[in-house]
Amino acid sequence: LTDLTLTLENGNSFHVHSLILAAVSGFILERLKETSGEQNAEQYDSNEDVGVDRWSVHLGTRVDHVGLRAVVEFAYTGVVLSLNKDIMAQIKAAAQVLVVPRLVELCSKKERTKEGDSAKKEERTISIPEQMKITLQSIEQLWADRVGCDVTLNVDGTFFHHRVILAASSDYFRGMFTCGMKESRQTCVELPFLLAPEFEALLGCSYSGILRLGWESVFEITCTALQLQFQPALSICLNFMQQQIQADSCLDVASFAEAYGMSDLLEEANDFVLRNFREVSATAKFQDLPAEKLLDFICCDGLYVPSELAVFRAVISWIEADPEERLPQAGLLMTGVRFPLMTFREFREVRAINLRMECFGDKEVELYGSALKEFGFSLPKSQDYCRVRRPKDVVVLVGGDQLNPDMGRRIPSRELWFANSLRSGTGLVKEIEWRRLGEIPDKPKFRHGVAVMEGMLYVVGGCYFYAKDDMMKSAYYDPVKDSWKRLADMHELRSNFSVVVLEERLYAIGGDKEINANIDSVETYNPDTDSWSFVQPLDQALSGYAVAVLNEGIFISGGFNCKYVCLVSMFLYHPERGTTYLADMTNDRAQHCMEALQGHLYVAGGVCNLRKFYTDQQACEVYDPVADAWTAFASLPVPHVGAASVVLEEKFYVLGGYCQDDYSESGLVHRFNPSTQRWENMGKLSGAVTDIRACLLRLPQHLRQ
Questions:
Q1: How many other C-beta atoms can be found within 10 angstroms of the C-beta atom of residue 644?
Q2: Of 75, 71, 99, whose CA–CA distance to 87 is shortest?
């Protein structure tokens, strides 16, 4: 689809797309406007098949081969890889002749840098992605001005377009315009099978890369993107469905994915239904489920519900939506309800519902008898009926500390454990199946830092004893190879700190360098060079804080200051700009947890100031970064000081810790569900319970068997 030939005095020539060159070159832009005017006059009023209109520009002696090649490279890639002092003059001359101001400026900055002007060295250079963004914006403006448009698409109206952009965005149009089809020779193409709103959205996306989506339009736009094979737009649509899926849309997503054979999207949608079944069963769309599909959901082991009573209630609500048609299927659906997992109090509701169902006309209803038989005679085997959910990502616990059973001393741990499955038993009883993953290849440690970057588990710093035995040593674990590798040491000792990942770098922030002495320094780890380097420090010494990354920002809450007073502060940390303070928390706290969930930051647990001492902080609060404000949510049922935390399947887990008031260790795991605004007891930890660290990791399947 190249339509422009640029020729030099020596006979060399370049075949290019005039639209691309016009986006960076003022000279080509003016020639394209002239050419477009002539073509509009001659062709768009004609019904003749003309194909691509080719034209040429002779550049004479002012531009040589090296300079022109650099201009073309810049137009298509946003960079000139061969730019150096030996050919600088040729490239700059070509850029000046063709009026490419961004390339002229790039050459000028390069020259100033070579001259050693230190003041000019700090000039900001436009990055390659920024250069390409500017070029694409210029192309979009050409489209808006109808400059260089070489094809008209008739879709319930007229759309002027560029063939090269259509072909680059859509496999359908690439085939149409490059494989000899009759449309490749037409200036007007009829597309009567398309709808204008969806097609217009895809055209705009092909220039800007932006697709404005909502649940009212995403399915129609996705269908059109599939039909015309707009791959970039299709990816945006599928990402929207996966990231914005909610209780009232998941069943539509599942139906769409099944109809179009999208197995990954179908798996994601079905899994969302399973882990949010209670909320999904309350939607209007749930009432339209086919009986066989509902039975598939409730028979699944991975179905998550607070108790089995929620499954029974969901089936009854589905039947009552159309009792005349659905009562005959009640018996079959009840085989999916695991009655042995109900308590006696919950089972009373089954009898009450059965009596109500008997009032529906002449239909024969017998739910209670079979349910009672299953409930009564299966009690000893209720463990066999447990619903067992195995999340794709697993919670991994690293190191930690615990009290020796004989109360004599504390025992630091080297062990790694992972939660292989989540089990729902009788009533509200929950249990986690813990499995041992391995050991840290170093001394046992606690109050360390852990993070996952590109599928690798990094373990950094920490201490072996509550004294001056802090560590700089670091290592990472490869779950695929089941192997550890030592990393370079940090520059400073750190414990009671955290490590976060931002833009493929680790950041180790503050912490204690020895007992009762904390620091303000921050180090970053570069995996490419296996090295640590200092970045902008905090504005005060800090340890025992909580940190989370949200919207590419590092948020830090609470912690101990240099006098070991618990803080109420919340701030945004940047490796170059330092600290920006935000709204204070309602409660002071340290040794607490904070996690990013649904665009907010949830804070729970820890200790708070009590005169000259500390006491348990069970109050919880959530931060809204848009409003810069805090709101309280349900308090923890028990203290969690020095606990670990993760977000798994859109729920906030707080694991282990101890009680400050009596130093007891329960080892409990609590989970907060934002949709119900309640904490659930998920069972106990296995191994160390205090000053542990946790993360999510994707493990090989053979470890999950």
A1: 28
A2: 71
- CB contact set of 289 (below 8 Å; sequence gap of 6+): 251, 297, 318
Q: Closest Cα to residue 547, out of 498, 495, 610? A: 498
The class that CATH gives domain 287-385 is mainly alpha
CATH 1.25.40.420 spans which residues of the chain?
287-385
- DSSP-assigned letters across all residues of 329-340: GHHHHHTTS-GG
Between CA 509 and CA 513, with CA 510 as vertex, the angle to 5 degrees is 130
Instruction: Please report the DSSP string for 324-390 in residue order.
Output: HHHGGGHHHHHTTS-GGGS-HHHHHHHHHHHHHHTTSTT-----HHHHHHHHHHSGGGGGGG-EEE-
Q: What is the pLDDT of residues 373-423, one digit of tens each?
A: 665 555 444 456 788 999 999 999 999 988 776 655 778 899 999 999 998
Cα atoms found within 13 Å of the Cα of residue 315, Cβ hemisphere only: 30
Distances (CA, A) of 8 to 59, 89, 333, 616: 5, 17, 78, 79
Report pLDDT digits (tens) over 163-183: 899 999 999 999 998 888 888
Distance, CA of 656 to CA of 644 (rounded, Å): 7
Residues carrying CATH 2.120.10.80, the chain: 394-703
Nearest to 401 by CA among 465, 450, 449: 465
Whether the CB-CB separation of 579 and 573 falls below 8 Å is answered with yes
* Nearest by Cα to 693 from 474, 344, 451: 451
pLDDT at position 335, please? 87
Rounded to whole angstroms, the Cα distance separating 390 from 479 reads 18
Give me the architecture of the 1-126 domain, per CATH. Answer: 2-Layer Sandwich (3.30)
3-state secondary structure of 40: helix
User: Under DSSP, is residue 81 helix (H, G, I), strand (E, B) or coil?
Assistant: coil
> What's the mean pLDDT in 513-525?
92
Contact between 140 and 132 under an 8 Å Cβ cutoff? The reply is no
Please write the tens of the pLDDT for every residue from 565-584. 999 999 999 999 999 999 99
Backbone angles phi, psi at 429, to 5 degrees: -70, 125
Contact, 609 vs 563, CB < 8 A?
no
CB atoms within 10 A of CB 35: 20
Burial of 468 (C-beta count, 10 Å sphere; 0-12/13-18/19+) = exposed
On whether the CB atoms of residues 390 and 677 are closer than 8 A, the answer is no
- Ramachandran quadrant class, 644 (left: phi over 0; alpha: psi -120 to 50; beta: rest): beta
> 387 has which bridge partners?
424
**Strands annotated E in 12-51:** 13-16
Match 């991975």 to its residue by tokens.
302
Question: Burial level of 211, CB count in 10 A (0-12/13-18/19+)?
Answer: buried
Would you list the DSSP string of 547-582? Answer: EEEETTEEEEE--B-TT--BB--EEEEETTTEEEE-
- Number of helices (H), then strands (E), belonging to the chain: the values are 21, 37
Q: Are 1 and 164 in contact (CB under 8 A)?
A: yes
With vertex at residue 197, the alpha carbon angle to CA 194 and CA 202, rounded to the nearest 5 degrees, is: 80
- Of 32, 24, 6, the residue nearest 104 (C-alpha): 24
DSSP-derived secondary structure letter, 477: E
Q: What is the pLDDT of residues 200-217, one digit of tens each?
A: 899 999 888 889 999 999
Q: Is the pTM of this model over 0.85?
A: no
**Span 295-324, average pLDDT:** 91
Query: What is the pairing mode between strands 651-655 and 668-673?
Result: antiparallel
CATH 3.30.710.10 in the chain, residue ranges: 1-126
Which residue, 52, 47, 14, 60, is CA-closest to 35? 52
Topology of the domain comprising 394-703:
Neuraminidase (2.120.10)
**Furthest-apart CA pair in the chain: how many Å?**
98
